[in-house]
UniProtKB/TrEMBL annotation:
Pfam families: Pribosyl_synth, Pribosyltran_N. PANTHER family: PHOSPHORIBOSYL PYROPHOSPHATE SYNTHASE-ASSOCIATED PROTEIN 1, RIBOSE-PHOSPHATE DIPHOSPHOKINASE FAMILY MEMBER. Residues 194-217 are annotated as: Disordered. SUPFAM superfamilies: PRTase-like. The gene is PRPSAP1. GO terms for cellular component: cytoplasm; ribose phosphate diphosphokinase complex. GO terms for molecular function: ATP binding; magnesium ion binding; ribose phosphate diphosphokinase activity. This is Phosphoribosyl pyrophosphate synthetase associated protein 1. The lineage of its organism: Eukaryota, Metazoa, Chordata, Craniata, Vertebrata.
Amino acid sequence: HSIDGSRSWVFFPVFYHLRRLGVELGKSVVYQESNSETRVDVKESVRGQDIFIIQTIPRDVNTAIMELLVMAYALKTSCAKNIIGVIPYFPYSKQCKMRKRGSIVCKLLASMLAKAGLTHLITMDLHQKEIQGFFTFPVDNLRASPYLIQYIQEEIPDYRNAIIVAKSPSAAKRAQSYAERLRLGLAVIHGEAQHSESDMADGRQSPPLSRTTSGHPGLELPLMMAKEKPPISVVGDVGGRIAIIVDDIIDDVEDFVAAAEILKERGAYKIYIMATHGLLSAEAPRLIEESAIDEVVVTNTVPHEVQKLQCPKIRTVDVSMILAEAIRRIHNGESMSYLFRNIAVDD
């Protein structure tokens, strides 16, 4: 089927609602063999065409990545002109920094996608914007904030009495962006341990006994003082207000539940959580249901229908329109600037 008279196919390893484009699904089969290997069969010619692979990330992240890589390579070897990956939530995006003896897995995945044949990537709200630098091809990092801000304005009664909350100092920039656009106040929760940023013991203090641990004679390095976790405090007045916690990902919800309890203690009478990617892993639905949180609002970048059945507090905002428009503009060679209007560097 055509978008503008020229031919373009959209292949869906995982179904995603983009019917508004008027483009039929490409004919392909993706399945697991009895030995758990992933196999892809493209059932029609793609030679010289623009191909858009839309891959949402379900519970089995690694299988989804392998499907994407095999699909991209199959299209590359079938002489597709351009292979554009549409990955609303980019997996492994939290592993974008070096952690002692760890690795930057996000960079590895970017290299694998390039090697498999991707020539362009459309995604949404990367965990760190600098991740775009890991890729050797163009990346369009769309924003969900206009949709979430619209939800606040239309669905939260008396939102003018709300205050935007960052659950940690690292989330303050995102919260500030929401606060400035909604003309609301800003509060920051300080003192809560961030597990992803913690310096966990990794054995560096226990080297093999056969090695010497003393430095070069005469070499004196300054001793780094150990971090001390401050008592939890809320910077900003939330008393008698609606507290809206904003973040990019909500996965393990313990931090959000703890933040909600603190805000309740400080006098907030209603608590909302707004996030782009609702991973909601493990016991997240149950914890949300039993917590002081009144509502969790996420977009449909990640499938979460099962979690919604388990917890009626979860609401979904549809962002398929901006993804469909990005696909249309890339295929037609149009400017993408319209999709980033009024978007600042810190958004």
